[in-house]
């Protein structure tokens, strides 16, 4: 289940409270446990996946979650697989690990592992959201955010696309709040 770190250092783990905190941004968080991970548990534990294994996971997942593609107007999906040996690990962190927006929605469903998303609220304060397996996150177009794998460097998720350009980040220049060095 997800956890939300608020600007003043409070950690919220109640899903309904997290949803309430994210609502002013239009960001949605849901938790779904359809049991599909039981169909491919060994694949979720593997660091490296072949293209056919990725395709198998996507096809099984999409057969259950077709409604996600329908409600978001997305036309295709892929499997994001981040692990310590990922050839694109550093590039992914550099690309998405600073505040940016997208021109289309950003829906993502976590199959395994965890990632951190940061958001700028309308009042300028910042929050960090830790999403984990079976969390579904919907970020509307234009919402200022960043994302990064957690320190575990293990993250498998299905990303949904309306078009290829929509996932290209548009950097905003906003600096991240330094939670660790803030007095409490």
Give a structural overview.
The protein is of the alpha+beta class. The protein is 23% helix and 32% strand. The protein is built from five helices and eleven strands, in the order E-E-H-E-H-H-H-E-H-E-E-E-E-E-E-E. The protein has helices spanning 15-22, 41-45, 51-64, 66-72, 89-96; strands at 3-5, 11-12, 28-31, 76-82, 100-101, 106-120, 126-132, 135-139, 145-149, 155-161, 170-171. The strands form two sheets. Strands 1, 2, 3, 4, 6, 7, 8, 9 and 10 form a nine-stranded antiparallel β-sheet that branches. The protein has a two-stranded antiparallel sheet with strand order 5-11. The longest helix has 14 residues, at 51-64. It is globular and about 45 Å long. The two termini are 25 Å apart. The model has no long low-confidence stretch (mean pLDDT 87).
SSE order, one letter for each helix or strand: EEHEHHHEHEEEEEEE
Give the uncertain stretches in residue-range form.
none
Mean pLDDT: 87
User: What's the assembly state of these chains?
Assistant: single chain
Largest β sheet strand count, sense and barrel closure: 9 strands, antiparallel
The total strand number stands at: 11
Counted by DSSP, the helix tally is 5
Structural class: alpha+beta
Q: What distance lies between the first and last C-alpha atoms, to the nearest angstrom?
A: 25 Å
Strand content: 25-35%
**Helical proportion?**
10-25%
**Shape designation:** globular
Q: Radius of gyration over alpha carbons?
A: 16 Å
Please supply descriptive tags for the structure shown above.
184 residues; alpha+beta; nine-stranded antiparallel β-sheet; two-stranded antiparallel ribbon; 11 strands; globular
């Amino acid at each position: 289940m997800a956890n939300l770190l608020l600007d003043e250092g409070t950690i919220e783990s109640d899903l309904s409270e997290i949803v309430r905190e994210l609502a002013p941004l239009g960001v949605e968080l849901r938790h779904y446990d359809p049991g599909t991970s039981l169909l491919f548990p060994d694949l979720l534990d593997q660091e490296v996946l072949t293209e056919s294994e990725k395709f198998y996971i996507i096809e099984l997942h999409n057969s259950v979650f077709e409604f996600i593609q329908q409600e978001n107007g997305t036309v295709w999906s892929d499997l994001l697989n981040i692990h310590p040996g990922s050839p694109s690990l550093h590039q992914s962190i550099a690309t998405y690990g600073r505040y940016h927006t997208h021109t289309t929605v950003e829906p993502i469903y976590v199959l395994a592992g965890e990632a951190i998303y940061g958001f700028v609220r309308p009042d300028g304060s910042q929050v960090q959201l830790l999403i984990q397996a079976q969390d579904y996150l919907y970020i509307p177009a234009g919402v200022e955010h960043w994302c990064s794998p957690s320190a575990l460097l293990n993250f498998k998720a299905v990303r949904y696309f309306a078009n290829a350009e929509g996932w290209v980040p548009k950097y905003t220049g906003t600096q991240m709040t330094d939670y660790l060095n803030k007095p409490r």
